[in-house]
Amino acid sequence: MAEATRERITDKDPAVKLARKRLSVLQLSQELGRVSKACKQAGMDRTSFYEWKRRFQTHGLDGLRDLPPIHKNHPQTTPEATQERLVELALTHPTRGCNYLASLLAQEGVAVSFVTVQNVLNKRGLGSRYERLLALEKKALANQIEPDRTDAGTGQADRTSQPVFQRAPRRVKPAGRVAVPGHVFRGPVQGSWQSLLA
Asked: CB 3.0 to 4.6 Å from 165: which of 55, 103, 137, 148, for a disulfide?
């Protein structure tokens, strides 16, 4: 009586029901002698049938159950504390590259490849030097960090209200002197080139 009750309990388990359904397709193909006809009756494709047959031959009825899902988090993900330290170092040294930042972490005893450094910085929006400098400027404007505005020679504070991190102004070359890169003409340009450069 107890064995019959246990059999009924396991039949209610969806994983066992699915395994038994797959086993019935395997048995049906053996009875019919044709895999394609058994698959068509059961509504299963032949690729799946051969996969279930292989798993049944190697693992028995347990092989016909669904496999457990793959974890969404990789077990070797960089720890959050290391990522935070990496961002801190990147903002401390905004013009330095990933190799330098990886070597700084290595000096602290944390082994991280330069590719991992680049991936972490990209995810945080700090992948390029320009992005890191912009992030520093935003922090300085929000008064989260105090910019260094002292003149190196005199030690006097610069009282300008300009941001510390600014892009250098572009130098514009005068028009009309260079027609072909690498070639400089002496004197005025004549003919059809003059209309192109004007």
From this structure: 137
177, part of any domain: no
H-type helices in the chain, by residue range? 2-12, 14-32, 35-42, 46-59, 80-92, 98-107, 114-123, 129-141, 192-197
Q: At what angle do helices 2-12 and 14-32 cross, to 10 degrees?
A: 90
Closest C-alpha among 27, 31, 25 to residue 44: 25
> Which residues are within 8 A (CB) of 44 and not within 5 positions of it... i.e. 6 or more apart?
25
Lowest mean pLDDT among 106-110, 111-115, 166-170: 166-170
153-168 per-position pLDDT tens digit? 444 444 444 555 556 6
Q: How many domains does the chain divide into?
A: 2
pTM flag (> 0.70): no
Within 8 A by CB and 6+ apart from 11, the residues are 17, 20
Please indicate whether residue 179 or residue 55 has the higher confidence score (pLDDT): 55
Q: Check whether residue 56 and residue 8 sit in a common domain.
A: yes
Range of the domain at 91: 80-141
More confident residue, 3 or 16: 16
